[in-house]
Request: fold
Amino acid sequence: MWNYAVFVGLIQNIDLHALTGWIPERVAIRRSVPGVEETFNADREFQRIHERFHSGHCLVTVATGELRDGEADRAGLVPTHAYAMLDIQIIQVAATI
Reply:
């Protein structure tokens, strides 16, 4: 029987390793800054996660940072909390005139 008192929680990389034995990869999502050599490419990262998730090659968690009360309420999220991603989909939105 697993001892849940040992399961720390709150840091999704540690949680995924404890649950699966996998060494997790962490991707920080941030805005690109002009002049910075390595910038975050949202489209490339989304495609990579989408392909690997649907081929069964990864588990994905997403964590929130500090949020103001209004932001947390509007988004329905808890500040500094990790969420398991259950699905990821590409949705085509038609342009309207």
Observations:
- The radius of gyration is 17 Å.
- Residues 12-84 form one domain.
- Residues 1-9 have pLDDT under 50 and may be disordered.
- Strands lie at 61-63, 82-84.
